[in-house]
């Protein structure tokens, strides 16, 4: 067995703070030998191994913040917060120390929606990576409040096993977007783990390392993340996003053009993601969804949605109802 690959895998998992006891079975030769002749590019095969071999029980163990928060500063900082809202804000800022990831947050009525976007190709297509990040957020809120907080909804393109659904307390939804929704009142519950002394101690170090990393995500990712926050407020035009980013509208247009895209395309992407998820909420009528997505006219929303999805709003909602009924029947 290639000892170098085994060491790289162990080092990578340690870097992420994953508990070794729960995934030791992934490190035996029967699993790793098939990769001996493969080119090891960064950590791409690590995710391939985890996606293929990790069980849902192992995934849940790797998502339990009690197993790793002491070794992962961003989670330690989050648990030192006054409540879940501050915890998620800190984690969104400093999780870049763990991996290139964007966590967009925006208000949705009495809820807070969290959108996860990966900026590297290795995590982007990894079920293990995404579900660990999503479930870790639930675990974080529960550990901080010492209460079994149940999210409003959770979704991704990946399957949520029965054991994962049981842990979450809800069924994961099939979605083009990677999202997690909490009630704001649950996130406002005080953290019993609040620790101002430790936060004051680790904050300078976190800021130092973030600055040292000099992370430059694609401008399209930054624009999408900003739009998720601005659309609910109604001020999400090009100039609004540019002002939020502290640059001119012309500069923003030029940067997007250099990436082969436009502001209009990025806005459509975000509106499509929001619309497809909000339409799955049976408590919202089409007019309400249209407004929340940023349309002043329901007719314009209908037209745009048909262009995005290839089906009408009514057809889309019917499809989701049938899918939900099928899952419940099973």
Automatic annotation (TrEMBL):
Keyword Transcription in annotation: yes
Source taxon at top rank: Bacteria
A family per Pfam: HTH_18
Provenance organism: Lactobacillus kimbladii
GO CC aspect terms: cytosol
Key words, A-Z: DNA-binding, Transcription, Transcription regulation
Gene Ontology MF, one: DNA-binding transcription factor activity
Lineage: Bacteria, Bacillati, Bacillota, Bacilli, Lactobacillales
Protein name: AraC family transcriptional regulator
PANTHER family from the UniProt entry: HTH-TYPE TRANSCRIPTIONAL REGULATOR GADX, HTH-TYPE TRANSCRIPTIONAL REGULATOR VQSM
SUPFAM superfamilies: Homeodomain-like (SSF46689)
